Amino acid sequence: MATVTEQNQLTACAQPHSVSPENGVHLQPCKQLASLPALSEKWAGLNTCETNRTVLSLEMRKREVDVGSEEEARKLEEKQRERRRKKIENSARKKRRMMTRERREHEQDCKMQMDAWTRQEEVLEMWRRRERVEGEVKRIQQAEVWKMDRRQWEDDREPRVKERAHLQGERRKERERLEKQRTQLEEEWRMERAMWQMERRGVEGERRRRTEEWHAEMESKQEEMRWVDGERRRTWRLREERDKERSESDEAWERQRELWETEDETAEERRRRERERMETQRRQRKASWLMEKHLWERNIECMRMERRRERLAWLKERERLERERTDEKNKVN
């Protein structure tokens, strides 16, 4: 079968304008023209058999070459396609294997994390359950206490009121009683606060007094040390003058002077150590005083919070009792 190029050449040679001398086209002798059915009279004298053999041999050779080339190209293309397919499959297999390993590791990490979260949730749920049980026990105990208090209060109540004026009088008396109780509690609170302030001032005054006494003691010790140092200097000066008058040689005088200087240095070192010791004691006393102050303030704060909680509980209980009393009176009316 002829290729596309041969078909184009044959088609071009078979067109009428290509063989017409009137078109002004300069034609060259072509071996393919001998095989065409329509030929111009200009080429009729050529040897037709020779031309046909040549054309057929050329076509057969070109067809064999083309067929071989196409077969090799097709095989090469199939081989390359197979290589690309295998390469793509290997890459996909590696990628799937890697993704499977990563997914397995990720799932294992997720499972470990979920197990850790589950253990944490179990511990939290255990603590919540324990707190709920303790809270329920406390609530039941408190309800029992309130029920006993209410029963006691109901037993202590006066008989049922029949007249509205009597009810109004009872309400007025109850309001006066509550107001009196509130005034009494406020007075107690003010007295406790005043006592607390007095105690605080007393403690602070005691600390201040002890600090002042300590400072006065230190001042007296320093004054005594200064007086002792002055007495020593005067004694040394008198001794120096007396020895200087009695000394017979400058060498003995120099030795005595060096001895006195050594004694002065020793005394100065002793005084310095004493000052450092006193300063260390002062810092230790100050640190202990600060610690004691901190503990005392925290204790006062805890007492204040406890009193506040007791007062809030008392107010809630009073409101509840007032509501119950009002409901009972409304039911009676």
UniProtKB/TrEMBL annotation:
Start-end of Basic residues biased regions: 82-98
Organism superkingdom: Eukaryota
Basic and acidic residues bias (residue ranges): 63-81, 240-260, 268-282
Bias kind Polar residues: ranges: 1-21
Region (Disordered): 1-25, 63-107, 157-176, 240-286
Protein name, UniProt field: Uncharacterized protein
